[in-house]
Specification:
The chain contains 13 helices and 14 strands. By secondary structure, it is an alpha+beta fold. It has a ten-stranded antiparallel beta sheet. A hairpin with an 8-residue loop joins strand 3 and strand 4.
């Protein structure tokens, strides 16, 4: 369930790191053309099973304080399993992965859990959804006040200040350079199933919503079973509207229904996403949520949603995270 992570470790064994790895000096671009910095930066790419996927190591030595810091940055999921994989780390695999890193950087067993802080973190899973297509992304219409951004039709973001929610087609990501598999995907696979990747990408773990659970490796380890809850709650918090639902036959027998039918046609013509954007651009911010909810209710009242897509996705999410929990 852990994918990308940035770990900061203080008081590292510099001699061990220096003697075992061929570091490349990195210039501190923020210090160019000013007083020379007391910090010296060194880079190294750490490999494991896959020689093509590496974790980025940055060793910082401060000549004034005589302290050294090591940062480890990248996808430990891909580093552990290999680059082109849809597997997710379960608890035991996560522990083993961290212990492999620990041994590679010269720490004693168990030492890394006590010395490592986390500044960035990405949690997520890949879901195998039968009878789904990538068009389902169009049904995730709003998340709080986040900016909704869709890229290349296959990737959807909801961007907040310190984190973002992300959905994308995992099959396309894995095989994006394989023309034969992409052709097969377009002709056959994409019409039968969807490998949906859902991630919460936390840019600042110091955010109060995440700090107590994920601020260091030890708390992350202790709160492993909290990850499924977070994934479920954040996904469930997204406003989902089945824009592909069948239209009901409704008699226009009163003025309210007549007015609502006009709004419904505007939604159909402009699209629900565009309609929400128009409301978000209203000058009066106090009633935006109310107007958006009214709009969604109108759409639902004129459609018959028998598919329960969101509920099916949540069920698959719970099944997957249960297998990955302790």
């Amino acid at each position: 369930m852990i994918d990308k992570i940035k770990i900061i470790i203080k008081d590292v064994n510099v001699d061990y790191l220096r003697n075992n790895y061929d570091w490349r000096e990195k210039k501190d671009i923020h210090r160019e053309n000013v007083i020379p910095s007391s910090k010296q930066l060194y880079r190294y790419n750490l490999t494991h099973k896959s020689k093509t996927f590496k974790l980025r190591l940055l060793l910082t030595e401060n000549s004034k304080t005589k302290q050294s810091t090591l940062s480890i940055d990248g996808s430990i999921r891909k580093w552990y399993f290999g680059k082109n994989t849809r597997k997710d780390l379960n608890y035991n695999e996560f522990i083993e992965c961290i212990e492999i890193i620990e041994s590679k950087i010269g720490f004693k067993k168990g030492e890394i859990w006590l010395k490592s802080n986390i500044t960035k973190l990405e949690i997520g899973v890949t879901l195998l959804l039968k009878d789904f297509t990538i068009d389902i992304l169009n049904c995730f219409v709003k998340y709080k006040e986040a900016k909704r951004d869709i890229s290349h039709i296959t990737t959807l973001y909801f961007k907040q200040t310190n984190y973002e929610l992300k959905f994308y087609d995992k099959y396309l990501e894995i095989h994006k350079k394989d023309k034969k598999k992409l052709m097969k995907y377009n002709e056959v696979i994409s019409k039968k199933l969807l490998l949906l990747r859902f991630e919460i990408s936390i840019e600042k773990v110091s955010d109060p919503a995440f700090k107590t659970k994920y601020k260091n490796l030890l708390t992350l380890k202790s709160n492993w079973n909290q990850i499924p809850t977070d994934l479920h709650n954040y996904l469930n918090s997204i406003i989902f509207l089945n824009i592909y639902a069948k239209e009901k036959k409704i008699e226009l027998n009163n003025i309210t229904v007549f007015k609502d039918s006009g709004y419904y046609q505007l939604i159909i013509n402009s699209g629900i996403i565009k309609a929400i954007e128009i409301i978000n651009n209203f000058k009066n911010p106090n009633n935006k949520s109310k107007h958006i909810n009214e709009l969604l209710d109108i759409f639902k009242s004129f459609t018959c949603d028998e598919d329960n897509y969101k509920e099916k996705i949540l069920i698959e999410l719970n099944k997957k995270t249960k297998r990955l929990s302790i």
